[in-house]
Amino acid sequence: MEFDIIALVIVMSAVGSSIGMLSGLVPGIHVNTLASLMLVFYPSIASLMLLFADPSYVPVLLSACIVSASVVHSFVSYVPSVFTGVPDQDTVMSVLPGHRLLLDGKGMKAVRSAAIGSLIGAVSAVAVAVPLQYLMAGGLADILRMITIPMLAMAVTALVLGERTLKGRCFAAALIFISGIMGCICMFMPVPYSGLLSGGDLLFPLLTGLFGIPMLISSAGGAEIPPQTDDDRYPVAPSSGLKGVLTGSVVGWFPGITATAGAAFTRMFVKEDRPERFIALVSSIGTAGTVFALITLSVSGKGRTGTMVAVREIIGDGMSGVANWMFMLMLLSVAIASLIGYWATIRSGKAMSKFITKVNVKKMNAAIVVIIITLTALMTGVWGIGILLISSIVGLIPISAGIGRVHLSGCLLIPVVLMQFGLDTAFLSLF
Predict the structure, then answer these.
(1) Do residues 363 and 233 lie in contact, with contact meaning Cβ atoms separated by under 8 Å?
(2) Cα separation of 158 and 391, whole Å?
(3) Taking the CA atoms of the chain, what radius of gyration do you get in angstroms?
(4) Burial class (CB in 10 A: 0-12, 13-18, 19+), 71
(5) How many Å apart are CA 249 and CA 257, to the nearest integer?
(6) How far apart are CA 129 and CA 326, in angstroms?
(7) Those residues with Cβ within 8 angstroms of residue 161's Cβ, 6 or more apart along the chain or in another chain
(8) Those residues with Cβ within 8 angstroms of residue 246's Cβ, 6 or more apart along the chain or in another chain
(9) Cβ-count burial of 192 within 10 angstroms (0-12 exposed, 13-18 middle, 19+ buried)?
(10) Residue 164, class by beta-carbon neighbours within 10 Å (0-12 exposed, 13-18 middle, 19+ buried)?
């Protein structure tokens, strides 16, 4: 392997990391959308790269850029999740414990926990990447495929039984069902939407309505956010992040299984009562899943995420085979992006923790709601606004009923269950 290609991969990983910071810190902009845009403009980008790189290097360089953006996004996206309560599909489970720590003046503890969990997830996934390639090709993939449906069914059951009263369980089952139907509509149905900006994603208004808007409304009349403290210590042990690595491998292998679904299942077996430990667990699942999706692409040739689909289109069969040179360069890109992602998460978290205490909570929440509505209108049009309104109403139900909002994660769990049973097409036939 030539030194110049290694140097160029390092540079493109830094460029991709900057893109991941943007998508992670700005609500509504997902790294999958940016990866899709890179794919659309690939000919123009390739022509630009030819000014400083050999033509044979261009696919792997752009792929390194996309992979590093995906990794850094999985780190940095926890910052707006903690300080504004606006989640994406991988940070849903961490919104509530993160907000609790924020109201206790420990928002940076939540951010540091997420950064550490993500770093452990990424490092662990890179360390086992090549051995896991051998295991997947040797039959492990078939075993995982057989146990996925029972695992997901158990996760849904565990959410319901987690409520102690009959009333609570009835509400939990209803919320899982209602949010699940909404998730199926957004993920399966060809809902017509015409936002002014391309690349709109209906999951943004859905998740923000279920988890973000209700939190902003319920806290609008509450106390001011207290001064945030940060003792620069590691708030969690590595074990919290390591517990999520195995689940992350499942997230990366199966289509449609998100970090939220993996976290909901992991809660059945791993008890992390302290919010910072649970945040580290969830973040580890998300970032490890991103890396394992790369391993899946190298073994099966299938892209399990939007970014990996873009990489597959660009690089083709270039990563086929265990530990080939392109795959090793992608792992190098992951390693670089992980270090940058950890640094960027801590730095942006510190900046946000200082800013958040200087603003009026009511005005800030109102401004965030206006921004969310504006982004929804621009990216998804009138259908997105409708989904945002309905999901916000549904999201207020757990607050009124006095039960956990985690049951709203059915919006991602139920569609995954249907996909695993092959019933997503049957769902469409009902409408």
Answers:
(1) no
(2) 23
(3) 21
(4) buried
(5) 11
(6) 13
(7) 169
(8) none
(9) exposed
(10) exposed
The rounded distance, in Å, linking the Cα atoms of 107 and 113 is: 10
Judge whether 46 and 58 are in contact, CB under 8 Å: yes
Q: Which residue, chain included where needed, has tokens 């992991």? A: 266
Structure tokens at 141: 């993939």
Backbone angles phi, psi at 263, to 5 degrees: -70, -40
Place of tokens 């919010």: 275
Q: Which residue has the tokens 């992951």?
A: 334
Instruction: Match 């790294």 to its residue by tokens.
Output: 31
Q: Which residue has the tokens 């956990």?
A: 404
| CB distance 242 to 120 below 8 Å | yes
Q: How far is CA 378 from CA 23, 35, 201, 205, 393, in A?
A: 16, 19, 11, 11, 21
Contact between 43 and 55 under an 8 Å Cβ cutoff? The reply is: no
99/101 Cα distance (integer angstroms): 5
φ and ψ at 53, to 5 degrees? Answer: -135, 150
CA angle centred on 160, ends 154 and 164, rounded to 5°? 125
pLDDT tens, the chain, 431 aa long: 577 888 888 999 999 999 889 888 876 566 766 776 677 677 888 888 878 777 888 888 888 999 999 899 889 988 888 877 655 655 555 666 777 788 788 888 888 888 998 898 888 888 888 888 778 777 776 777 677 777 777 777 877 877 788 888 899 899 999 998 898 888 777 666 555 554 456 777 887 888 778 877 766 555 567 778 777 777 776 776 777 777 776 666 665 556 666 666 666 666 666 778 888 888 888 788 888 888 878 777 766 666 777 788 888 766 665 557 788 888 999 999 999 999 999 999 988 888 877 777 677 778 878 888 887 888 788 888 999 999 999 988 987 888 877 788 788 778 877 877 777 666 666 66
